[in-house]
Design goal:
The complex is a heterodimer of chains A (about 140) and B (about 140). Chain A is an alpha+beta fold and about 140 residues long. Chain A is built from 3 helices and 5 strands. Chain B is globular. Classes of the chains: A alpha+beta (about 140), B alpha+beta (about 140).
């Protein structure tokens, strides 16, 4: 089952958020706080992963799993961070995150004339949302 | 091949750290203390941002190594890192927990939540890890 999906820019602004199933949100009253906490956790986790592995470890974090969900992580060379939360039966989703970036995000967001990569404002692009929705629903692990 | 072992007490301080093979990256004692506490907080945050009721981080996969975390009922965390193709991480962690109960908790000179300096524990830990490292070679 796919729970939710985040895109962060390199400064930690949440460009896009979408949830399909979310039984629990401990920070429901404050949306911004929830995104900031998520980004902060990933930022520190990347630091930790790099340090623990020796070297700088850039781009090394792939996923982590708790007893009930798996967070899949993908960072592009430009510093965009893609985060997809699923249950623990979904398997390895690295290829799916790459597909979302390479085939959907680049085509419909990066190439969009109104997209300003540095502004850090949430995306308002219906075509991207539709395409993402379609792709997610086509995945075998969606339900 | 196993790389490193961290044991973190329930309040988040590192009480034990050991390299488990020559391939483990070198960490200064400051760094390992910092990593231990950082992991403790991230473990808690992972449960807070979860989309569903959840515990903390249990497994973590990266391009160069994998990490497993065993949290005991008393709140101590055993964290082990290993190269990507290493099998049976959970079994080894369980084994290490058993060694901890036998040679640390039953040591009359050991104070709870304090750094572990128990000769017998280190010896048996090395033996256990060596056995698994040899089997996976």
């Amino acid at each position: 089952m796919i729970f939710n999906f985040y895109i962060f820019n390199r400064n930690g602004k949440c460009l896009f958020y979408k949830e399909w199933n979310r039984p629990q949100n401990t920070l429901q009253h404050d949306d911004g706080e929830e995104k900031r906490l998520m980004f902060g956790m990933l930022y520190s986790l990347q630091e930790l992963v790099g340090k623990m592995g020796g070297g700088d470890g850039k781009g090394a974090l792939q996923s982590f799993t708790t007893d009930s969900y798996t967070l899949n992580f993908f960072e592009t060379a430009s510093g965009l961070r893609f985060v997809l939360n699923t249950d623990n039966r979904a398997g390895d989703l690295t290829a799916i995150l790459r597909h979302i970036y390479g085939n959907i995000f680049v085509d419909l967001v990066v190439k969009h004339p109104m997209f300003e990569p540095k502004a850090g404002v949430p995306l308002q692009l219906p075509m991207f949302e539709e395409e993402l929705e379609k792709y997610m629903k086509s995945l075998p692990c969606f339900v | 091949m196993f790389l490193q072992l961290f044991i973190i007490n329930k309040s988040g301080s590192l009480i034990f750290h050991q390299d488990l093979s020559p391939a483990a990256p070198r960490l200064s004692s400051n760094d390992s203390l910092r990593l231990g506490s950082t992991f403790h907080s991230l473990h808690a945050i992972a449960a807070q941002v979860a989309p569903i009721a959840s515990s903390g981080i249990e497994k973590l996969e990266t391009a160069t190594y994998r990490l497993r975390c065993l949290q005991t009922l008393t709140g101590a965390k055993f964290v082990i890192t290993a190269q990507p193709n290493t099998p049976e991480l959970e079994v080894v962690l369980q084994g290490i927990y058993e060694l901890y109960t036998d040679y640390v908790l039953k040591n009359p000179f050991y104070e709870l939540e304090m750094p572990i300096r128990c000769e017998l524990f280190t010896q048996h830990l090395e033996k256990l890890v060596e056995r698994y490292n040899a089997a996976s070679r």
